Give the backbone structure.
Amino acid sequence: MTLKDLFDDPTFMDLVEFRDQWLELGLKVEVFTNLKLIELRQTFVLDDFMYGGLGNFMMTGLTDIADRYARKIAVTPTTKAGDKSISRLKDFYKAHGFIEITDKNKELIGLRRDPLGAKLELDFTL
């Protein structure tokens, strides 16, 4: 992907606007994209705003962008941004349509959400 491709991609421009709007409200959101995937790297909600629905509202906006442009979303839950429970984070993402991705030893790699309305690619060859 070239820099021109990135700036021509409407998903990128929507994500920049999305990130900037949330920053004005005191929520730090780090998102990156290529032509197939949106990667949510970090969100940080100030303690005063925890459990008030801000994270749900933000995630609804992000999933709307992903669905509009048929992009998958990937995230790796971490406690680095202040959350104390990976389990609680996984439950949060699962409530927004994410599924767990594990390695062959069933260790969590991350979570992924496919865009709503995405066509399933089935292979019926024998």
In short: Residues 120-124 have pLDDT under 50 and may be disordered.
